[in-house]
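Work through this protein:
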Amino acid sequence: MSIIHFPPTEFLISAAALKQLPADQDYEVAFAGRSNAGKSSALNAITNNKKLAKTSKTPGRTQLINFFTLDNHHRLVDLPGYGYAKVAQEIKARWQETLAQYLTSRQSLRGLILIMDIRHPFKETDQQFLTWAAGCGLPVHVLLSKADKLSRNIANKTLSQAQQTLKPYPLTTIQLFSATHGLGLEKARRQVLTWLKLAS
């Protein structure tokens, strides 16, 4: 059990285009990741609300930008999953354009939680996200999700290799994470709340 209390979080709005987003003010932390990397599960675990973000075994289900509110000044953002091959190419292109615009233009965005399946980290689209974020001066915290699927030794070795890969990205940090086992939950939760100015 985490000892860090996360404020009650509720669904606010879903947006299919940037013009539908809430006013660009106050504090936001966004969650991003490849389809089926465990993004929704991570969001639910961190907020301690299993029903907050819809989880699905069908990759590519999240096609909207979903906003959740902690209060009138603090929001979490669930970005569309990316990189799933069976999604039509024109839809993938539209998602990527919307995500790129959001990341590069959103002034209230204070940090990005990037979820990668520890068994398949640093795919091309993950690297693209890191490059976008670095270009915007946006801090990123990577969760190597589903760490319970590997032995502790292999998981730690993968983490060490990932830290070397991230050396060109000084604003990026990384940790092991498992939504089902609670591994790394407290650390991830603290990072989100710190970006939201709700913890130090």
